[in-house]
Amino acid sequence: MSAQDKIRVGVIGAGQLARMMVPPAIALGIDISVLAEAPEMSAKRAADRVGDYKDAETVLEFAKTVDVITFDHEHVPQSVLRALTDAGHSVQPPAEALRYAQNKILMRQKLTELGVPVPSWRAVKTAPELQDFIYEHGGRAVVKTATGGYDGKGVRVVTSGDEAADWFAQLGDTEALLAEELVDFTRELSQLVARNPSGQQATWPVVETEQRDGVCAVVTAPAPSGSAAGAAALNEAAANIGTQVAAGVGVTGVLAVEMFETRDGRLLVNELAMRPHNSGHFSIEGSITSQFEQHLRAVTDLPLGDTAMREPHAVMVNVLGGPPEGAMPVRYAEIMAKYPTVKIHSYGKSPRPGRKVGHVTVTGHNLQAVKQQAIDCAAEFGEGA
Ligand code: ADP
Fold this sequence. Notes:
Helix content is 31%, strand content 26%. By secondary structure, the protein is of the alpha+beta class. It has 3 domains: 8-91, Rossmann fold (3-Layer(aba) Sandwich); 120-181, Dna Ligase, domain 1 (2-Layer Sandwich), CATH 3.30.1490; 185-381, D-amino Acid Aminotransferase, Chain A, domain 1 (2-Layer Sandwich), CATH 3.30.470.20. Bound molecules: adenosine-5'-diphosphate (ADP). Residues 119, 142, 144, 149-155, 180, 182-183, 188, 211, 214, 258, 270-271 line the site of adenosine-5'-diphosphate.
């Protein structure tokens, strides 16, 4: 076999996202290797290497065995990403793009520069600076750590600058916190976009995301709208923002643009994730091309697949917590008999309160029935949605 007969993708991955890239890789005959942090991590089911992604030497060794390096999280340090690029490896998305997913202040700066609508924001270094921002924004604000936050950790609603005193105390000289207006949103949306290094882009229909305690719980695809015209307008507006952001930050692979829809119908960008995202899991069964297949196509600079829905509606519900007696399969016999149309995904994780241990997806024509079935089924696995 000549070198061109093989496409080898290396994923630096911690968990279920890398794991879910494996089925499409197998279907396409792409050699996928996953560098996981620890043997017990969910990605390990797909992984052949265990090593520290913060260690340049480990990652460089891994990179030698593949044609392209990609990720299932954004935590690989810039120094390691630069070392890979300097050694001539293909890193997708590139280090330059990943910066904006690693630091919320840089991201806000870049989006503002691009003219993308975002909540009113300011980088603040002290409690009095935060207090000024709070005064200017009606007595309340959201404060976020610039780095290291996930699933709502690192996000606080505050009415006084002192409520972030502990975070200010930990800031280095060059660091700041992100202060933002508390957006009065009616719902949260997510626009998934894929972009390959040649610049081709594809967007999925914008989806609605519902969070519980800062964690994504339910995703409805496409985001419900009162009318067909309303849906078309919303999709166009969200897709325009998504493609503008993707090209503007130079991302490759899948990008999730999380947005707020305000009471007066505006879309404000909140967060960027540069990898397949929880809000795109519906696409495994719901779309002609799933986000996981698309990510592989995009990072290897292949033509992107069609992103149209296979059925009018798809609803994904996370299984949070899981059955107290063990991993999700302990309930399969009972649940599969009861819900033959539900597609069940288990990440092979043991149960823990609030932990994402899997998800379920239902597709169909009747949104209310589809959503109810997905919620009921997920609930039977444990804490449910
Ligand atoms: P994380 O990186 O932890 O996911 P996010 O910035 O996405 O943090 O914030 C988590 C959640 O907090 C959001 O999904 C939203 O519900 C809420 N939130 C974040 N920023 C704002 C804001 N400016 N106004 C209102 N709610 C917000």
